[in-house]
Design goal:
Blueprint (H helix, E strand, L loop, with lengths): L9 H7 L4 H5 L1 E7 L2 E7 L13 H18 L7 E11 L7 E11 L3 E10 L5 E12 L4
Antiparallel strand pairs: 1-2, 2-4, 3-6, 4-5, 5-6
Length: 143
């Protein structure tokens, strides 16, 4: 498995997304270690669909951001960036208030692709809200 980059931290990741969608949604990275990244998102009205349940896109945004930032933290030396080439979610429940947590775990850290799984939970109870998997393509500088 690839190694955690020494030039990345929770603070750097949170600063990076501040003025982008993750910052607007309130996605906050909380813990980074080799092969894993944890995050949370306080549930606000903007995360909720008109049916008053947590919007699926909000859950996907949390999981995809957590996996994406985990990819950045585990890029191979010399890689320029990455892009998501596939993602899938299974929704198991919802929350209407409080916060949701996400833990992303590396399944494959290769030179050309990475595969990450994430579990989204109700932060207060630990009850699973969603299971998520994505494949990231590693981008290299053009020669």
């Amino acid at each position: 498995m690839g190694a955690l980059r020494s030039d990345t931290s929770v603070d750097i990741l949170n600063e990076r997304g501040k003025e982008y969608l993750p910052g607007y949604l309130g996605v906050e990275m909380t813990a980074l270690a080799e092969g894993t990244l944890s995050a949370r998102m306080a549930v606000k009205r903007l995360h909720v669909a008109p049916n008053e349940f947590l919007h699926a896109a909000s859950v996907v945004a949390l999981a995809d951001t957590t996996c994406g930032y985990a990819t950045l933290a585990h890029l191979p030396d010399g890689a320029a960036s990455f892009t998501t080439i596939e993602l899938k979610s299974n929704f198991l429940g919802t929350v209407r208030e409080g916060a949701v947590a996400c833990v992303a775990t590396a399944q494959h850290l290769g030179r050309t692709t990475q595969v990450w799984d994430a579990v989204v939970t109700d932060e207060a109870t630990g009850r699973k809200i969603a299971l998520f998997r994505c494949t990231q393509m590693i981008l290299w500088p053009k020669a």
